[in-house]
Amino acid sequence: MPNSPKRKPEADAAIDDSPPTTAKKPRLETTPSHSDPDISTNNDALNTAAPDSQISVPQALAYWSSIPPTVSGVLGGFPQVSRIDLQGSRNFLAKLRRSSTSAAASRKKLTRALDCGAGIGRVTTGFLSKVAETVDIVEPVNVLTDQLTQGEGGVGRIFNLGLEDFPPSAVEGEVGPYDLIWNQWCVGQLPDATFISYLKRLPSLLAPGGWIVVKENLSNHYLGEDVYDEVDSSVTRTDGKFRKLFEEAGLKVVANEVQRGMPKDLFPVRTYALQAA
Ligand SMILES: C[S@@+](CC[C@H](N)C(=O)[O-])C[C@H]1O[C@@H](n2cnc3c(N)ncnc32)[C@H](O)[C@@H]1O
């Protein structure tokens, strides 16, 4: 299962005391046969390399280029979670804004937001373009952004780049400022050190009072470890790891919450709002 909504281990430790598998990965039509859950479990047992050291950008891009450009495709076969996810994001942002400004001001549209690892623009069209005048997009896979057009539906600039290359040096100083930089179901594509470097570049792109948001699956590995996913070559991190990386990047968590209403057999999803410490 890719770095999108995904099933957590079925094993309920209270009932079954054998070590749970790191993830039950429902087979997708696009899933290569080597992603068989049993094989994955065996690899986990044998592979002692740090999960993030196994990330391969070419492998990740090959996977994301092979999916259908649909909500189901970007959500790993769980399109039904999109509605509740988008509603949760709207609520989270509304609370965040009300905590820092007046009720009237918090209802005004933001000027500019950035949708990172945007895929087909599910978050842009379903959420960000409703709360911001303009939404810029970062997404390395061109075929996924083909349906989006600059200047239509609130879509601003489209950067076909990985987060590791954003912002591109050619336009440094001409990107942003953003009231909101939204990263959802994509930062697992970056190894830890690359993720920290990326996070460190973001505060200079923020408008005063702006937020960086990271909304991701959380690993609930029985030993508290991150989990490598060979299907899209990503890692699922623990809550503790996320907080450690944010701190190392010089960011503080100003609000966070677990997404309510997700199916119980999927990994929990947590949303973090970050600002410079
Ligand atoms: C699970 S989809 C999520 C898409 C979107 N954020 C959403 O929630 O609908 C993961 C996305 O991350 C993108 N991605 C893969 N590697 C990336 C990288 N290095 N930097 C940014 N995005 C990446 C994929 O192409 C894909 O569009």
UniProtKB/TrEMBL annotation:
EC number per UniProt: 2.1.1.244
Segments of skewed composition (Polar residues): 30-50
Superkingdom as given in the UniProt entry: Eukaryota
GO cellular component: cytoplasm
GO molecular function, one term: N-terminal protein N-methyltransferase activity
Keywords, sorted A to Z: Methyltransferase, S-adenosyl-L-methionine, Transferase
BP term (GO), one: methylation
Annotated catalysed reactions: N-terminal L-seryl-L-prolyl-L-lysyl-[protein] + 3 S-adenosyl-L-methionine = N-terminal N,N,N-trimethyl-L-seryl-L-prolyl-L-lysyl-[protein] + 3 S-adenosyl-L-homocysteine + 3 H(+); N-terminal L-alanyl-L-prolyl-L-lysyl-[protein] + 3 S-adenosyl-L-methionine = N-terminal N,N,N-trimethyl-L-alanyl-L-prolyl-L-lysyl-[protein] + 3 S-adenosyl-L-homocysteine + 3 H(+); N-terminal L-prolyl-L-prolyl-L-lysyl-[protein] + 2 S-adenosyl-L-methionine = N-terminal N,N-dimethyl-L-prolyl-L-prolyl-L-lysyl-[protein] + 2 S-adenosyl-L-homocysteine + 2 H(+)
Family matches, as Pfam families: Methyltransf_PK
Residue segments, region Disordered: 1-50
SUPFAM superfamilies the record matches: S-adenosyl-L-methionine-dependent methyltransferases
Enzyme class: transferase
Name of this protein: Alpha N-terminal protein methyltransferase 1
